[in-house]
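Closing statement on the protoporphyrin IX containing FE sub-project.
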Amino acid sequence: MVKQQLVWDLPVRIFHWCFVCVLVALWYTSDQDNDLIEIHMKLGYTALSLVLFRVLWGIWGTRYAQFKNFIPSISELKAYIHDFRLGKAKAYIGHNPLGSLMVVFILFAVLLQATSGLFISDDIFSAGPYNGTLSESFEKLLKTTHSNGFNIILTLSGLHIFAVLYYLIIKKQNLIKPMFNGKKLNIGKNDGIAHSRLLIAFIIAVVVVGFVYWLVVINAPVIEEYYY
Ligand code: HEM
Ligand code: HEM
């Protein structure tokens, strides 16, 4: 056994805590009374960039960040739930099968929320860059999605935080510290990752930011002026 080894690479940790901060800020700026909808939209582009980054990092990232190493099969999931109920679930070095499923759901929910935001307006002064490009009924559907989607994100986040606290308090496993320093204690010699692949992360980040800039600025159709 080697004492402390790197499990969560730096990009995953930066992604995680930025994601949390951006989602809180998105919630705060979504309140019409605050008059912060322009900032809300910019934060929405940031959330979109973070999700796209994480999806690509799930392909080219380090061992425990890669989807192929953590998205469970149905049988793995069933076995985990079965063992969990009996209190026999083994500890995982990366995400456990239920946690993995939650990661996928959260990423998908935020992707849907940010994408729907691109097509809607607040019916006053502000509109996403693609507002007016789809049929009225479809945009109405996206607006309903956007208005209600955040409740789903909140529920998933609540469950996620509950699970992390359950592990901390009941199972006496602190998963939070490794999300800060990346390291886990007492795992097998070859179970850690050697480094964070920062150059690849940097290239992915540049590509994602470039793509989102193209999507919301360069490629966006000219928005009709609103006259009152
Ligand atoms: C808005 C709230 C939150 C969201 C949307 C969120 C989302 C996520 C996501 C997507 C991951 C997967 C990370 C990855 O593989 O890239 C994750 C992991 C994790 N998060 Fe959060 N998170 C939130 C709040 C928190 C808070 C407040 C804590 C600490 C109390 C926390 C602790 C953790 C831990 C420990 C993991 C790793 C779990 C494991 O070991 O499998 N999260 N979270
Ligand atoms: C993941 C990212 C996002 C989250 C979590 C989020 C969350 C929210 C929430 C909670 C509301 C209030 C809904 C209501 O009270 O009915 C809202 C409204 C709004 N959002 Fe977002 N949003 C995101 C991304 C975006 C993006 C990318 C845009 C546009 C570029 C956008 C544009 C708007 C607009 C225009 C409103 C006002 C809609 C109305 O008046 O009904 N949002 N958003």
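The helical segments are 10-29, 37-60, 67-70, 74-85, 97-117, 136-169, 176-181, 198-218. With this model delivered, the sub-project is considered complete and its resources will be redirected to Aim 3.
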